[in-house]
Amino acid sequence: MPEEVLDLDILRPEKKIVRLAGKEIDVSFIPCGLTWDIDKIARQLYELDRAKAEEGTTEETKRAFDLTVDLCVTFCQWKHKEMTREWFVENVDIMQLERLAATISSTLERSYAGAEAYQKN
């Protein structure tokens, strides 16, 4: 009798790597152990007063920067323990930071969309 195999690897998205300051970071998925932490930070970023941040209000802009760094550190430290807040501040410019944060947020959105679609089936 043939063995039945439930292949859950087919649900995992295609691997996508971001190279940042010599580190290779897999941004294709968010491990379940990080989902809630990443979601919490992403929601805080979303809820910031965008108008104040765009006006250049120092407090709101600093808060947005801090949350963006927190998001990247939380995500990256899962596999790269050395990627601390200090590491990001010393090795990454603001454009790189923003792009990585946007990629992480996009991955989170895609994983939620995939989970929703899977539940409907």
Describe the 3D structure.
The two termini are 28 Å apart. This protein has a domain at 32-108. Helix 1 packs antiparallel against helix 3 and helix 3 (58-76) crosses helix 5. It has helices at 35-47, 50-55, 58-76, 85-91, 94-120, and strands at 17-20, 23-26. With 121 residues, it is mainly alpha-helical.
Brief overview, please?
The protein is mainly alpha-helical and 121 residues long. Helices cover 60% and strands 7% of the residues. A two-stranded antiparallel sheet has the order 1-2.
Number of helices: 5
The percent range for strand residues is: 5-15%
**What is the CA-based Rg, rounded?**
17 Å
- pLDDT < 50 runs, ≥5 residues: none
Structural class based on helices, strands and sheet pairing? mainly alpha
Overall form: globular
- Beta strands, count: 2
User: What sequence of helices (H) and strands (E) makes up the elements?
Assistant: EEHHHHH
Q: Give the % helix.
A: 55-70%
Q: How many strands, which pairing sense, and closed or not: the largest β-sheet?
A: 2 strands, antiparallel
Strand order of the largest sheet: 1-2
Query: Roughly how many Å apart are the termini?
Result: 28 Å
What's the rounded overall pLDDT mean?
A: 89
